[in-house]
Amino acid sequence: MRLAVSGAFLVLVVGACSAGGDAVDGSTTTVQSTVAVPSPSVSSEPNVVPTSSTTSVTSEPNVVSTSSTTSAPIPDPDPVLIGAGDIATSAPADSKTAALIEAFPEATVFTTGDNAYPDGTAEEFAEYYDPAWGPFKDRTRPSIGNHDAHTKGAGPYFDYFGLNAGTPGEGWYSYDLENWHVIVLNSECGKSGFASCDDQRAWLTSDLSANTGSCMLAYWHKPVFNSGRHESEESFADEWAMLDAAGVDLVMNGHDHNYQRYAPQDSTGTATPSGMREFVVGSGGAKLYDQTTSLPNLEEFYSGHGVLKLDLGEGSYAWTFISTDGSYTDTGTGSCQDG
Description:
The protein is of the alpha/beta class. It contains 5 helices and 18 strands.
């Protein structure tokens, strides 16, 4: 029972539990009844404002106790990583994928290469990429594609993205999203204007050794496994083996203009629960490619535009591919190897 001032009366509020003390679902049910009694006098002195507080009356006479309510803190949401590759052209599809990303303003945005077509020039970044995906530039962590590298060393790419793209001439870097370590590689390493692939592998060895025990993912442009128009990038199998041996959980690529999902596998294409799950997300806006073959561990293939959203939990992850026309989604969950 508690006393509260209401207008010119004191309202006596009596709390009563249901029979047995609790509701059927385990929550407490309260029934209130009010009784009007004369209210105490209010001071007539000027500039005196009465204060009110909530008190509860115990069953013992003349004992009044003050109660307070505390609530448990709301946990922070898991970090979200969202994006695609093969993005910006004169077609309207890149604006449609951008609209999907706009719905997640707190997410970090990834790209899996070929950001601006056809040659990755400064004019193409300004005319095609910037109006569509440009509003997310400050929270975008990109990777280099072969079309970005049509200009020597992908100079306009580095000029456009700045520090978010890593060191010019390299194109590999890493960053953390709470409990997740994220690795970005350059599948154009060793080509004109870029440092060698041996330099990239030396850096990768050091980065992986410094981040053991974390949930990890990696992304770059050309996929090691591909069931679409382009051949699988077997030259990157060494990097795959290094990532797999270090316990990396997820890989995202672009290059083929579609969406593909594979079961966890090792660098030889052998399915294994301890392997890495690959997503091809070349669905950012460029002209689409159809499926040409079906590799053994291919689980999903969709020739349509859209983005991949990853919810990165503590020791787990969830994926959702969202198509621009709403006709297709692909969802699922997994656990980290060492998370």
